[in-house]
Specification:
five-stranded mixed sheet; 7% strand; 279 residues; 5 strands
Amino acid sequence: MTRKKKIRILIIGLLVTIFSVLTYELLWGKLFSFSPIIIGFTKYELPHSSVYVQNGGDISNLTRIDTLIPIVEDFHELTFSSKPKIFIFRDSISFIGHSLSKARFCVYPNGRLFISPWALKEDKEGKISLEIYVRHELSHSLIDQNAGLINAFRYPQWLMEGIAVYSTNQMGTSFYPSKEETYRYIYQGNFLQPLDFKTKNEDKTKLNVAYRITFMYAEFACIVDYLIETYGKEKLLLFMKKLLIESDNDKVFKEVYTIEFSQVIQNFRNQVIEYEKNK
């Protein structure tokens, strides 16, 4: 056998191996969220969503989940161009094997929402609210779908989380501080500049709070609340929708509110301080 033939066989073998591994990961592994073929799940076509339940999984919450889609659309004044695809898993091992994330709930760039078995268990135990968490993730999915893949990656993450928490009344539930608690934390000196979220500066910011991530989400929700209370929901939604097309937070904010974003953030912090002082 010539050297060229040996190299050709090695290349073919390598390609076959890569293809086999990729196929496995798409159908049964970590890339399942991007697989065009769904194996081992039963599809339930509901009025507002397509729910895929792994064989042997819990089907008791299907209608409960489906009725949340119009609620999310109503708040955002946006609609899903295609039904959300929601996946419910049979057990924790299956979920972890199929998911890139170990979070209770996870929305992927293609809009698929994964619900973990322990999230359903915690809901039954009263530790979390399935409605709140699913609406939170559907808020992300709705914005992502309307923004498109590229713009969704560039969308201001502080606003994405702030709207999700505010629109679901998530503050004061589960591990999230209430508005009062969040104000108190801010008054004590805890604050993350919104545009530092998910940047290197986030890691450098010290926060003396019970739960770091939920405090940040609640802080952003308080900023959304401040914008609505000060300027109205209509402007907040205009800001949100213009960012579906343009990704420059400061530029779009100035166009909508005719004031610098940094100044409004300072105004918000000043209001929190005055509120806490006068309590």
